[in-house]
Amino acid sequence: MTARTAPHGFTGRHMLVAMISFFGVVIGVNVTMAWYASSSWSGLVVENTYVASQEFNAKAAAMKALAASGVAGTLSIRGNEIDYAIRNKDGLPADVDDVTLSFRRPVGDHEDFQVPLSKVASGHFKVRHEVRKGDWIVEIVSRKAGAVVMHEARRLDTAEFGQ
């Protein structure tokens, strides 16, 4: 007659393996997510939030005045050519000396760039610069004798321009 051994069931060793596996997955996911969060966005919106809050009302009033002026611009991107036309309320070209575009990615700042446009004609500006595919926030500042005539920001996807 042979001796039969009873099954051992769930032991402390099984519990240890289950806990290490569970917490290993939780810690692994947290480390991965933390790495993605820190590598994809600087988190910096303004340098000093207190100063930005003090300047908010003045900036908001200036933006309302610019919007009321009726000056509007049209941005187009074809290949490496960026084209900007700016018009007065009456549809005539606006009298502007220079236009500067600041391209920023919504997430991350490693591809951001700023480019001044060359005046082609009254109210018409161009520049050749590569704009990589994807989403961008474009800040457009138009000036006449150093004074801001138009300041606008747009979110765009290069797919809108057939890129």
UniProtKB/TrEMBL annotation:
Keywords: Membrane, Transmembrane, Transmembrane helix. The keyword Transmembrane applies. The chain crosses the membrane at residues 15-37. Pfam families: FixH. It comes from Rhizobium mesoamericanum STM3625. This is Nitrogen fixation protein fixH. InterPro entries: FixH (IPR008620), FixH_proteobacterial (IPR018037).
